[in-house]
Amino acid sequence: MAEFILMKGNEAIAISAIRNGCDGYFGYPITPQSEVMETLMVERPWETTGMVVLQAESETSSINMLYGGASCGKKVLTSSSSPGLSLMCEGLSYLAGAELPCVVVNVVRGGPGLGTIQPGQGDYFQACKGGGHGDYKMVVLAPNSAQEMYDFVDLGFDLAFKYLTPVMILADGVVGQMMEKVELRPVKPRWSDEEIKKNFKWATTGKTPDREQNVLTSLALDAAVHERLNHKLQSKYKQMETEDVRFESYMCEDADHIIVAYGCMARICENTVELARNEGIKLGLLRPITLYPFPTIEIQRMVPQLKSIMSVELSAGQMVEDVRLAVNGKIPVNFFGRLGGIVPSPHEVYEAFKKEINK
Amino acid sequence: MELKDIIKPENKVYSKSPVLTNKVMHYCPGCSHGTVHKLIAEVIEEMGIQEKTIGISPVGCSVFAYNYIDIDWQQAAHGRAPALATATKRLCPDKYVFTYQGDGDLASIGTAEIIHACNRGENIVVIFINNAIYGMTGGQMAPTTLMGMKTSTSPYGRTEELHGKPLKITELIAQLEGTCYVTRQSVQSAAASRKTKRAIRKAFENSALNKGTSFVEVVSACNSGWKLTPVKSNEWMVENMFPSYPIGDLKDR
Do A57 and B73 make contact, defined as CB atoms within 8 angstroms? Predict the structure, then answer.
């Protein structure tokens, strides 16, 4: 029988990590996600699964601890919130360049700078367009519930090891803090040293006489070699765009208009759709689950049936740029956003939507 | 007597460690890196731990340490090697994990990482190459650059007003509870190299005993950065570096 527990989204990350064979968590406290490490420290997984949990001296160190752990073929996780992620961008670029898998959770708050501890979605550009230096991308998963916080840890590791790349879970302060029932999935044990040696020939497991040394680096001073490495990364991103786009449609089949929203805003906009439907307006909701790779093709598929699209975000308008790229000028693309940690109500979104379509 | 009569196993007095690769080193003639690499390789060979050793290379001239020592390596971002080593050792406690870092890497951009790794007493080995200059980027001032020393970013000599005094990072490290062995050595002579090798061996042995962090500074020559000949560099080092960075153990417990 399925086991359900009432917990916060942040707690779900921690419990999921332990139950999904995570080898190590390295993090630094920051609101609104400190419950992740607090939960791990209370649970003491090192006494049960052998999972290592360490409070690092900074987010810079956390992400570089992930580099070390990932190099050994281990499933490693960190979590932080916006200012912490800015510090991690250097490390993310190195991890992407060295083709190392890991899962990084960003429970986004309002920015820029120290900003606010209230929820935000202003880190979309940072997550989806690089953040760190160089031509790299990460898979970016956007959970909208405590259950998805739980599930995306495991999905994140699957994708991280499929593509040998960092995967980001881009949550927000609402999803991290709200309590919901979470179904605990079956436990996955940690990989044994033998499994890691067998499955990850690239890992620094110690050079044995039967193989060449393994060197995990992002450095290639020879221009031709370096271009080849970059093309290899780009081909992975193309593969992600073909194989791993995830989204959810709500009342889109007959829609004349759709809202595109992710994370907590998608939950709120479901109610906006119902408000519209009650007044006879055929509104639907497209919720990107992967922000990168973005559901561009799905939006393009829907454009012929639509009169307009509105992107709704807790930002000044970031994802809307990807919506516009997908739509490519064929129909109006509108935007509604709140800033500073203010989360709009379904009614507020609906009023903004009506104002745009009645212009 | 002909050459073939001399080249016999019983006459052999020295051979390159098989833990060193056959790649031609990119280091300048006179640079200390090559000697320290050789000593590390010999220690790994003699302890029989090639399959259990993981090196973390820095940013700087020795970023390419992985080309020369035939073990598994992780290449870290500038200054972050101790963070990589921390996770590697904690997740793979049966491994010998060492960082190899220069003065810019360890004592400037990576001060937070080295201080906290040492303070936690991570069971790792730190090899710290102090040549008082940024070699790879072309001879800029380092945190350990001596007072009055001319570099490309202190062209009139280091002054206290502008740059502060040299950072005695090893003295600082020795204060930390987590370190079990902190020593400062050099490789300008055969005798000095032998002592350094003993220090490196001890550091690796400590790692297996879970005694905490072992930290081996090697006061080193960067003759290209110092703009001196290799011989003059060694003389200059003994005369000028050793008074500021005296050779010997700072801590051994």
Answer: no
Q: Taking residues B74-89, what's their average pLDDT?
A: 98
Residues of B in contact with A191 (CB under 8 A): none
Give the residue from chain A lying closest to B75, CA to CA.
Answer: A217
Separation of alpha carbons A39 and B242, rounded Å: 50
Chain A residues within an 8 Å CB radius of B85: 68
In angstroms, the CA A15 to CA A7 distance is: 10
Q: How far is residue A314's CA from residue A116's CA, in Å, rounded to a whole number? A: 13
CATH of domain B16-252: 3.40.50.970
Distance CA B36, CA B196 (A): 8
Inter-residue contact A313 to A172 (CB < 8 Å): no
Q: With bands split at pLDDT 50, 70 and 90, how would you rate the model's confidence at A353?
A: very high
Amino acid identity of residue A269, one-letter, is C
Instruction: Enter the tokens of residue A263.
Output: 């994370």
CA distances from B146 to A281, B97, B150, B157, B243 (A): 75, 31, 9, 9, 10
Give the gap in angstroms from C-alpha B80 to the nearest C-alpha of chain A: 6
Encoded tokens for A165: 């790349």
Complex ipTM, two decimals? Answer: 0.96
Span A167-176, average pLDDT: 97
The answer to whether the Cβ–Cβ distance between A67 and B51 falls below 8 Å is: no
Domains in chain A, ordered, with CATH?
Answer: 3-193 (3.40.50.970), 249-357 (3.40.50.920)
H or E, element range at A237: helix A223-243
Contacts of A329 by beta carbon, 8 Å cutoff, 6+ apart: none
CA of A106, closest CA in chain B: separation in Å? 20
